[in-house]
Fold these 4 entries.
Entry 1:
Amino acid sequence: MIVKKANIIYLFLIIGFAFICILYINKKYSFFSTGFDTIRVELNKTALHKGLPILYAYKNFSADLDFKKVYKFQKANDSTILLEGLDDEKISKFRIYFEYPGKEFKLKKLTFLKDNKELSSLVLSEFFSSENIEVKVDGVFNVLEVNGFIELPYTICNKIPYFRFFLTISLLVIVFLFLLIETNIVNELSKAKTKEYIFIAYLFSIYSAHPLFNILLIISLFFYIKNLDVKSFSSNWINLLFLAFFVVYFLNTLFIRVGEIRDFSMVEKFLPFVFIPLLLSSIRLKESIYYLMVSGLFLSLFLFTFALIDYGITINKEFFSFENFSKFLHPVYVSYLLFLSICYLETRVDYKFKSALQLFLFVALILLGSKLVLIACVALYLAFYISLKRNIKKILAGAFIILLFGVLFKPIQTRFNEILNLHDLSVLNEEYVDSNDPRVNGLSIRILVWKEVFSTFDNWKEYIFGKGVTASNFKELKQRLNNKGLVHHSSYNPHNQFVDTFWKTGAFGLVILLAIPTWAFVVGIKTRNKLLMVFSLFLFVSMLTESVFGRVRGVYFFTTVLLLLTNNNCYNEISHFRNKRRSKLSWRI
């Protein structure tokens, strides 16, 4: 019965993987039989009365927008504008900017033409990427600020590289199948009970679409809350610390800045600090972290898959770097999951190709390009898992890979030059800083924002209880950054969870926040749980460079991992993970 179930899961997953590849190509690209020479846009008189929009293009399948050349539309009549003479421009994608704010604009249709013949057209609802644009129904939209834009939802190609498609997808299916076999995930899923699929789906959903993990958390609570072990909940101090952290933000929202309208969006974002501890105190699924490790491996495969498909079509290496590589996810948050997967592989399993899987994850980590996260990952991994005498080959191989990327992959060189060039820090001493100053980089902008955050404090009460989470607080910081000259960075958050928490909730919130990774590390020492010790330190370091709870995904990920690692019901080792060969799987259907 289990063998048959496993075979069905194999078939389902392989078909699903191939379907996702085809769906990605279909959504990302549009293939024209011939190039276009004209773009026609039909708008209403209200939009055109404000002024004609302009266009900026992505050329030659570049992943970056070319702002050097402005394309100006010409008015054909009262409701139609044209952009002609595009035969040799090699435009693969574009943005249309509306330079003036306004309401009740209407985009009826955008059409591509060649020699006055229509090739393709689309309506406003198909433009799912925009900024400072409020889309309504029937093509109506409002431009909220200067230079609001809509972006073409696909990349235009003139020919389909069938051979490269077939070769790329075939190779990726083989790698996908290898991961299925090596991780033994199908066998594990086939042995799971029906109710356990809900919680496993929740674990996999953390790095999926935003509404999905909210929905699966609620469904999991519905099925498992009756099994809540109150004693287990109260005995795990991490549960209580997360709950206290939520309560501080809740009380802060109610009582700080009393004269202002209450904004409960932060409280809503932090509700998982209550629900996840309740859920994980009701779960009895052993080795739950295993499923997060597997999700890290398969997420990396999907990122490589999309990058290879992009490269196969465009022959552009930019799709292997940073945001272009992480696609729909924030690269820093993806890095968190990959590091957990690397450490879990080192600690908990004896796979035959374990080192190859770790190398695969490290390469993905490098391509994501989060400098300080990568440095923290390498340092913690070497400190906790690598013995110089026993692992000299592994160290040399890893150093060679990192050096190779540093020499051959120019984006990595550029990223690390930002933190290695100490001259850039001279910008910190200047009263006024131009946002376009080349010294304003990932490190210096963080320090500049931190300085402005602390400059907003007015009295001792704010140091103890915080400035609050009201809109006026954020507006004050934004204004200070604008006055400093950082107009392109005025919407930045502090990019430091300690600074962010202290700013909003004062010393009370900061003490609780510091207690979370500290207590987890102490528990790791007491229980000799190396993975918990490493991850606690990693959380501490991550909070120095990123507001990790600024995104709901960060709240879900770090809360879930820490609670799984401190909950014996979800972390006890199961027998086949170490010192036993995996059972061979049947392929008979």
Note: The first strand starts at residue 29 and ends at 31.
Entry 2:
Amino acid sequence: MVTRAVEQQSHGGPWTAFLPLVRGLVWAMIGFAVGAALTAVVRIAGGRSAWTFGLSFSVGYVFALLGWLLGVGMWERWGREWFGRPTVEEGPTDWRRYLAFTTDHKVIGIQYLATFVVVFLLAGLLAMLIRIQYLTPGGTVLDNATYNRVMSMHGILMIAVAVAIFVGSFGNYLLPIMIGARDVAFPRLNALSYWLVPPVAILLFVSQAFGGWDSGWTAYAPLSVRNAPGQILFCLAIITFGLSSIVGGLNFLVTIITMRAHGMTWGRLPIFVWSIFATSWIALLFTQFFAAAMLMVLLDRIAGTSFFAASNGGSAILYQHVFWFYSHPAVYIFIMPALGVTLEVLSHFSRKPLFAYRWAVGGFLGILAMSALVWVHHMFVTGVPYKLEAPFLITTEIISIPTGLIFLTALGTIWQGRLWLRVPMLFALAEVFNFLIGGITGIFLADVPTDAMLHNSYWVVAHFHYTIMGGEIFALMAAIYYWFPKMTGRMYSERVGRLHFALMFIAFNGTFLPMFWAGVHGMNRRIATYVPSLQGVNDLISAMGFLLGISFLFFVANMAYSLVRGRKAVANPWGARTLEWQTSSPPPVENFLVPPVVTGHPYDYGVPGAAPYAAFAPAGGSGEASS
């Protein structure tokens, strides 16, 4: 039995919005105490001390995580049903809903977006600290150990953003609307996937109180088995984050397969939906390998196993195989939704049909099929058998073919288009430019001889940032500016948005292009110091890096001001065809007042005789075509 609570927005002050969070933290502390106590009882019964950090904290965290989830709202909206009691499905409808365990996919999308934008900005501040360190060759700001912890934290925070910000935010908010559904297939699982995320952030930051970790975001064994206790919190955080990713991927797949609007065949899906579809398969199939790697590190630390101890028959190379079997497919979790957004924006702002739509879909599916066949190119210098080098060199080059199809789709779409150079379009065009550089420079790292020379140099840093930040983060900015009117009902300042773009584009390229030169001339990554001959190029990189950081101040100011004072947005300010633009801004609770019927193609701009993308049939009416 499910009951819907009557909204009582007027009851209680603003402080009541934080009650679920407070309750979740209290229940988490109670859960941790219970888990630690149970561990103590078992250890005492075995004649050992009551507390050992690794085991006691790990078991306590499992109970704490359950307490957090139940306390923050899962008990009221889900758990009560397990015991035959009525649940409360609806929470507040005002701003307080963003701090609650809600099942509305649009609210969850905003929760993801706000959370990971904050994480992104914090990780950016750590990057600024790293560049301050490099203002002198000796790096007088941070000692070696502190630098390693800062670099490691920066890396994992940015990786977390890259993994979740597109799928979690825009995937959640827009995908159901774009396919004409009222919500995702499993709304309560969707809420669960988000509320698993705050404990991840808490663990990563609290780990610094226990010495942090100095093994980078890759957490290579055997260092990760032997370093400070903070590494244990890192492992628990990654396992939790992996569970969130798996649950989210499953939910999106079921939603896309089973909940498309009438008439929305596979050939009429928006390209962004296709990108989420391929990404969700990777998240579902491969994330458990990263979690397994973290679990093995954890067991080596707390349970006496020896997966990675060579003296006891283990192998550190085993860790790299398991880790990269997920972590290279994860690169496509980063970039495929970004490419999907880019193609969406390019078509709508070029006023042209998406060039080679089917080939672009084939490109996404080709990346999905090939993503598990390239991981060893990260290990060319580890002493892998010689007979593995050539096959993985070839597969790494082959996967550039489906990626190239998507890139050519972008170029073909803007060719001879009527380009409307608004802020989303500027960022999408920049994404194409940056991703091209990232792709070209990656060829050198796919080739065994050049990889041996460039490995662990700043060439890798530059290539990675051109691929991920230049590709994904520029596309993220395009997505935020493009869908901001839909999500908020407000328009942003075009002038400030253009200033943000100009500063970010110039500063980004000024920061990372010189890194290729620095890498070729001996600048090592992940090192707190460098040789004095490289100070000039590092000064240039730092200056551009600080400008890059400043550019985001304009972004934050624009978004914050526009959210409160921006002029009201119409339902479809861009004149786009896809379904999210055929409903109000922001959309109603169930997205459409009447279910849409898809009758055309989402990108038939300027096509003579093209059918409208969707029609709506009001009660008593014969149907009304969308623009």
Note: Residues 103-565 form a domain with the Cytochrome C Oxidase; Chain A fold (CATH 1.20.210.10).
Entry 3:
Amino acid sequence: MIYLFTGIILLLALIAIRISNKHGIPALLLFIILGMGFGAMGIKFNDYAFSDGFATVALMVIMFYGGFGTRWSMGKPVAKPAIVLSSLGVAATAVLTGLFCHFVLKFDLIEGLLVGSIVGSTDFASVSSILRSKKLNLKYNTAPLLEIESGSNDPAAYTMTMVFLSIIIGSDVSVPLLVIAQVLVGLGIGFGFAYLAGMLLRSMYIQADGLYSVLMAATVLITFATTNLLGGNGFLALYILGISLGNIEFHGKREIVFFFDGFTEIMQIGLFFVLGLLSDFDNFVRTFPIALVIMLFMTIIARPVTVFGLMLPFRLKLNQLKIVSLAGIRGAAAIAFAIMAVNSEAKLSIDVYHIVFGICVLSSLVQGSLMPAASRRWKMLDPNETVLQTFNYYQDKARIGFLETQVHSNSSLIGLRVKDLDMNFALIVAKIHRGTRTIIPKGHTVIEAGDTIILAGETHFDETGHELLEFNIPKGHKWANHLIRDLKLPHHRLIIMIQRKGCEIIVPSGDTLLLANDKVLMMEIDEDNDSVEPDTPEQGIMS
């Protein structure tokens, strides 16, 4: 029966996704409603211990893949404001909400601050889902800002939740030491394990399909467990691990992307369904007025005050600040932290789970549904950009790659129209950067000196069955400043092209000197296939 039940849930989840894409309702909200519906039909489920464990695993996957899918080149220009929002922003929102709960709703002060901490972070799954499904191509790098903020602010909320739970329980743990340990250990383990995993992934080659995903899953589990054992913030460590590994090149990356893309989606569906199933409809109705008042306060006052105040030094546009304020959607992490509070030894006088559950449902419904309309009304959509460039995994999943070439002052391309370009291969002109402008090319668009042309075409695979791999040589790498012939490397991989800074394309030989920041294009040959041999015995590629 359990298998039939699970299959029905997954089919209904697919229908919910279709409804979401058609009507703009956040899909994850529909999963919660689906769970509540099963509960209303008489399926009783109140196992908070199981829910806590499942929510922890789901958040581990969501946090890691949220970092893995973040394209750092897009996020770097807005990293400072995003990090401020994900740390100080969470603290400010939590304190303002907690004080409101205490002075207006008459909560105990510490319990009010606990509720504020639990709902202090924004939900990455909801924010990224809305950005992608509604194709919100936001101006001023707003999408990367929201992605980094929502992807990295759960650790801050988790730490604050732990602090106030410790106070309620009466633990003799020093609050400052707890916070310092959570942050420093989380950062240290995250960066340390990312470095070790990166070295391992770059140096090893696994032939069997699926094993790279197993390796990455093991890395995620070990990182989280080690961080927690040492008293650090495991979610922070996983986000650091994800963003570090997601922005380096290694063999098997496409396989990992496909695996975690589907696995993360399943975990999100399961998490939101379980959270909905765990709720009691009568308690939900009873606490609904409190949840509504808190949600409205956070949406209208706490979040905008925090955003406008903290972003003042960064000089963001007025409409950009409005969108960032509206995008403060609460979701799965908050409900998971509420379950953690219920399972703790804390004696609470409020129904923290259903209050937080109501806040998240209302936030997802109201703010999530308003995002597309508000983006258009506030003129924040940019037709010349795509929000998908914010996420690493779209390019990693696709067989479409991009080449960038500069039109120099003596180029024969100057004055030609796009339709007159002699494209002998399956390439298209995807876009043109001209100064500060981005041009979507038409057939009559004329090429000018100084243009940067972005070509798109099929990549990573050729019809003869040879895998094409890209590898960036970082500073300090053992290949940097070495001739290809001096690299003692196996013959089943060949360097076939090098792209150097400034878009210089080099056809390599054994005497070619590799430099830091070079992008190397490699061809992998089956070891039992003798149809292709290297031109020189020295030419080969990474082990």
Note: Residues 177 and 397 are 42 Å apart (CA to CA).
Entry 4:
Amino acid sequence: MTATWAPAPRAARLGARAAVLGVSLALARPSSAGQDAAAAPAASATRLPLPPLPRPAPLAPPESTPATLAEVDRLLERVSGPDAATREEAARELREAPPAWVGAIRKRVDDLAGSADRGAMRALLERARKKALAQLRARAKAAGEKAPAAPEWMAMLVEHAEPEKPAYVALARLVALTRMLVAIDTVEAARELVEVHVRFGELMRVDVQVQLEKMGDRSLAALLEARRHRAEKIGRWADRQLDARGKSVPGETVRVEDPRALADVLRAWGRVRDPLAARIVISFASSERAQVREAAREGVALLGEAGVHALRDAYEDTVGRRAPREWTWERIARELFAELDRMRLAEPYARFEAAQAALEARDWVAARQALDAVLAHGPNFGQRATLAAAYTSIAVAFFDSDPAAALDAAGRAERLAEDETLRAKAASLRLTLEATALLANGVADATLVERALELDPANERARALRDRAQRGELDRGPERRRYWAASAIALVAVLAIGFVALGRRRGAAERPAPAADPPSGGDGG
């Protein structure tokens, strides 16, 4: 059987080498219409397509579900209920809140903001605070210690409860919600903490500051974003918090040990579109840590035109020449990232060039070995479209001579492909290989073949396989082998039974006759 694989539209091809691969290589996704003009291959030795700019996830309110709302409500009811032991136990459970609760917590904060009596809550808070301070001072005096400056609000409300008053229930639940956010300890949770201050103003300002401080570097990104809050008062407040931590300038905000916090900070600088932070964000675009590197590139994409001057300088420092004046910031960013990747992945790129040379020479074995080495040395190599196309061509070449290698290559192509057309071709080829293997063993799986044709109607191998199965042209070799194997087993069984029977007969013949019983003797009288 031979296969005819329909090539993708020629208008999308990305270079002469794509013709060797037999499928389209123009699969890099542009991040916007402005990137279409920049889709030409990079002017590097490998002439690979430019990587697309990452698409940062938009900031959207976290969603809640009925299940998470029910779980949060149960905990809130217990922490504000009449039983002291139950309140204490629930207060401890606040520290175990999972990230999935952020949406439900936001919903309940909104509900409280729309219905709570802030004046009554403030009066109750002052009453509880005075009681708690008096109690703490008395304990400290008895122990000869210095009294704390302020009590912890959640512990204070649990101990000095007034559960019969709606203001207490609202305040205890609001404070409990903030403690859940601190326990979740993500940038999303920190944003919601800032929103608590936005919604409740001075009532919660001090406590929100304390809780953000407890979160440490995980709250930096939320404070950076709050600097550009629609309410100027919140922006000034966020500036003061950052200044108090010594994080008022971009260079200081990236001095963090936690890579997740650093990634959040880089995205935050992009969101606030501060040109002064552009150089700092770009400097992390070549980080060895994938999480940080991708976040920095997302930050560049978010900065957009605000970072164009820093991008031009970074490109000149990296490549050694100025970027053409007509290049947009998107083109410069993509060219820069491509060059940074080439430098960071020097060995995988060298192996990839060897794979391309082998593909041009139709040395499929060498090409496969080189591509496997590329993925082994750089699993995040980046040129997924090109790799997928190459593996598809290798699978086609090995289809008849080495089905196992063809199946492995088709599977890799399917996993690597980002374009739906190429992924469908690779999947169709994989299914055809699986159906061919089954047919060789006397099993005609029509489902696999039909699915292969649905994915790629141009798959002539699958069509020929379907016709062959429908005509009943199965390979009888395996069937004959099974027949002779069964016959041999049956013959061995018959011989064994005969041998056992013969042995029993011989044993019976050689066994001495039993001695006769002595005649019974009587006394005769």
Note: Residues 1-46, 474-480, 521-525 have pLDDT under 50 and may be disordered.
